[in-house]
Write a structure and sequence with these properties.
2 copies of one chain form a homodimer. The first copy, chain A, has helices spanning about 25-35, 50-55, 70-80, 80-90, 135-150, 205-215, 220; strands at about 5-10, 45-50, 60, 90-100, 100-105, 110-115, 130, 155-165, 170-180, 185-190, 200-205, 225-230. With about 250 residues, chain A is an alpha+beta fold.
């Protein structure tokens, strides 16, 4: 019989610690060549948000932040750092929930997540925090174009981050930026019970690939880049916007 | 340099249409042998809920359902089938949202999803719907034990289903049943800003693997089984319960 349908996910090793101003396309290109795994047509490249934030200077020293009164009062109540809370407010366009010391909010890009993505882990200093990229799909596009400029095949780039979700324990990787592929894959299914309404199932394929990449990127961002190979994803010009649910369809404002 | 960390996902082809009473372990064992891909230590087997529901007789003919008054009034308002709405109520232990013709509810197992998993697609008849397995982790365990009894290596089994989620468009595969692995993978990260609070990141690894399996199981359940190979997942006795967020931690009741 025919070979089973399959794909694989592999880590891109050897990416050095990233600093403000680093050219991520350059670092990824060198790493891909060093491990003799140049990109191939149909691949998808997954890059964690953290190194993009670092390369784009989205690292803030808390000492440079002055907390306002709202952040200060709330931080005192919940034993949080008021400067970090101030940053969360500045990064949010809307608070979804603010309870038990947790802020769940909507970022300017439309992502609902804890602390608006303000993150104190893996920054390499006690007082430093990272913010999400200003425009994650633009960041993805720059990496994609930079890789092509260095002679790599043009493949979609997904920027991944690690989010919680309601009702289920544990975090999952999802896509917060996309360049070069449709974030939604539509399957046309069966005709429904009345015989005429064709059902369409829309899968968040970029979120699935971000999750698929996580097991090889593990150990908390030690491996910030992975390649998904074998799914023959076509290159199409899309960003992440189709992933963001419009307010009028949102049951959990 | 060392080979990059990698894993692969492949479809288990050739599973026939499943009917009530079929032995899924038998069908999967035959299919694995036919494509010469016996299970290996460290593999994870992902099986879609739909074939489990079919094998376990969780297929209901709507003609056999009598809708109560609540289901009938609501179904009339939203132009739904009152019998399907009645089944959704029967499968739910709590309604989370009930709006615009959509019912989002908590199943007896604790999963919050649309229509309590009552599904009219891919059942092969206009009036038939599938319900979720009564105990998806027990179903996973039976498949796992049945495969071992047939000479396959003991590997974890995940039962996957396709769920929507708040704030993000598109569906993702998640795990609704688990046997043989810890559903949560904990990474111990850096020491926090105060220097003593060790941060732990808990990933929903079974949801990530369910999502990773989806691209080879696509075309709406045409391929109901996949193998994840290369992550060396240890066999440990767990079910899905660690995945269900307790009510007191739930911000979206």
């Amino acid at each position: 019989m025919a070979a089973p349908s399959e794909y694989r996910v592999f880590a891109v090793g050897g990416i050095p610690e990233v600093a403000d101003g680093d050219d991520l396309a350059e670092l990824i290109d060198v790493a891909l060549r060093a491990q003799e795994t140049p990109l191939e047509p149909g691949d998808v490249l997954v890059v964690t948000q953290k190194i993009i934030s670092k390369a784009e200077g989205r690292v803030i020293t808390l000492d440079d932040v002055t907390a306002g009164q709202f952040a200060t009062v709330w931080a005192d109540e919940w034993e949080r750092d008021p400067r970090a809370v101030e940053l969360v407010l500045q990064e949010s366009k809307r608070i979804v929930r603010m309870t038990r010391g947790l802020i769940l909010s909507e970022t300017r890009e439309g992502w609902v997540c804890a602390n608006a993505g303000v993150d104190q882990s893996n920054v390499g200093g006690g007082d430093a925090v990272t913010l999400l990229p200003v425009d994650s799909s633009a960041s993805a596009r720059r990496i994609r174009e930079g890789l092509v400029a260095r002679g790599q095949v043009d493949v979609p780039v997904i920027v991944s981050d690690t989010f919680g979700r309601p009702w289920r324990n544990g975090l999952m990787n999802v896509a917060i930026g996309v360049s070069g592929m449709n974030p939604i894959r539509s399957y046309v299914g069966e005709v429904d019970a009345e015989g005429y309404d064709l059902r369409v199932t829309e899968m968040a394929i970029v979120d699935e690939l971000a999750s698929a990449a996580e097991p090889v990127m593990n150990k908390l961002d030690a491996v910030p880049v992975a390649v998904v190979r074998g799914l023959n994803i076509p290159v199409e010009e899309h960003d992440h916007s189709a992933l963001v649910r419009p307010a009028e369809m949102d049951l959990f404002r």
